[in-house]
Amino acid sequence: MQVRHDAGMETTVGPVTGEDGLARCPWAGAGTMRDYHDHEWGRRVHGESAYLERLTLEAFQSGLSWSTILMKRPAFREVFAGFDAEVVATYAAADVERLMGEARIVRNRRKIEAAVTNARATLALRDDGGLERLVLAHAPEDPPAPRTTAEQQTTSPESSALSKELKRRGFAFVGPTTMFALMEATGLFDPHLVGCHRRAH
């Protein structure tokens, strides 16, 4: 999730204290976004389908708000078979057309085709440790500790390396910025601002 684009705020904002007395990253105002911030963002996930889901949704977010993706996530999970790589890898042209007619998701042909491509690439990775192992291998040794949104990164040497390796393995829509967002979302490092109540928890 490229949270700074969602926030629409000045770039020097630090944690904001809510009505419940807890300090949070400034994009986590209320509702769905607050729930995601408090319970999911920056927490480790496990298993191939969990990583494929987040990789897919980060790609679909490009150019959109993360709140839009979260609202559509149940439908994404339904139409992409719970992000079961074995099922999605079998999707053919007719399935792409079916998904292009599915109003509950983001109807972008290139992104839908990329989701199928990435499912097939995920299967190919199984013989070499799998998607989860590959992503985890790119965790930063010196993770960032931003105090304000101005200090937050959108890419890193590790996200660039992960992007390059995934592309080499046949993945699509896995640019360095998208991979940095994936690394934040899956807890490869703690992405919360210093002072946010979720940091280091």
From TrEMBL:
E.C. code: 3.2.2.20
Pfam families: Adenine_glyco
Positions of region (Disordered): 138-164
Biological process according to GO: base-excision repair
InterPro entries named among the record's database cross-references: Adenine_glyco, DNA-3mA_glycosylase, DNA_glycosylase
Molecular-function GO terms, alphabetical: DNA-3-methyladenine glycosylase activity; metal ion binding
Sites where the protein binds Zn(2+): C25, H37, H192, C196
Extent of Polar residues compositional bias: 149-162
Keywords: Glycosidase, Hydrolase, Metal-binding, Zinc
UniProt cross-references to PANTHER family, sorted A to Z: DNA-3-METHYLADENINE GLYCOSYLASE 1, DNA-3-METHYLADENINE GLYCOSYLASE I
Name of the protein: DNA-3-methyladenine glycosylase 1
Origin species: Nocardioides dokdonensis FR1436
Gene this chain is encoded by: tag
